Structures are given as structure tokens and as C-alpha cells.
Amino acid sequence: MSKQLIPILEIAIKESLKNYEAREDRNSLGDLYLFHDTEDNLLVVYDDTDQVLNKVQLPDERFFNLAHTLRQVLQQAGKEKLFDRSYIEKPFTVSLIDKDFVVLEELFFLDDNTIKIDDVLWTNIEKDLDTFLEHLLQ
Fold first, then answer.
1. pTM of the predicted model, to two decimals?
2. Domain ranges, ordered by start, for the chain
3. pLDDT of 15-28, one tens digit each?
4. Model confidence pLDDT, tens digit, residues 113-127
5. Half-sphere exposure of residue 110, counting CA atoms within 13 Å on the CB side?
6. Whole-number CA gyration radius for the chain
7. How high does pLDDT run on average in the chain?
8. Pairing mode, if any, of strands 42-46 and 88-97?
9. How would you classify the pairing of strands 42-46 and 52-57?
């Protein structure tokens, strides 16, 4: 379940940033890319130059929604200011990618004081605001 997965993902993100910090050639980091290798059930974390920062073995995938759980972990990391590092360039995104580095889903977005977690959330808020505005104008 997600309870088993969350600590693994939290550690994976923290270790990925530590591995980036340890590199001598680092400049700035604008994006992280996460690839779920379903054959080996690994989560591979890449920086924005396609360099591997971390590989983490995941528990049996049949019992969780990886994208949803990653969003939870990244939201919490954002609240804990994990991404407030001098080398992290904003806007900063974390995306789920396929094996060809095509973005499947943007999981996390940070731009100064703006944090976007999920497009669905913003879509629902937009609909509510449209309805409110429509009623207000009548």
C-alpha cells in the first residue's frame, strides 16, 4: 500500500538531491524526471541533463498508484521546503516520464510562492470560480 511506499519515495527524493549536491559539475537544477521501470520495478530519478541521480527498488506495484503517491510525497516535500536550495532554479518541476523521456505527467510545480500540485485540483477550482462569477453577474 501507499504507507509502505511513502517512506521509500521520501528517501529516494532526498537522496537524489544529495547525489546532485555531491556532483562537482552541478550548476543549477530546474527539473527532476522520474521514470518507473516496470520490468525491474525501479524508480529512476534523472536531473535535467538526463543524468541518473538515483535508482530505487519499489515494492510490488499492484497495490498502489505510483503517480498519486508521488504527488503526496512531493507536496509534503514542498511544504517542508526540501526544494528551497540555492541550486534549484525556479520554476522547478518534477515529472513522470516514459523510457523515451516523454513527459507523461507533471507531478509537482514550484515557482517562488506558487505550488501547483495537480491539474485536476485547478480545473475544479476554475469551474467553481466560473460558476461563482456567473451567479455574481446575474
1. 0.77
2. 2-137
3. 999 999 998 877 89
4. 555 555 444 545 566
5. 25
6. 17
7. 84
8. unpaired
9. antiparallel
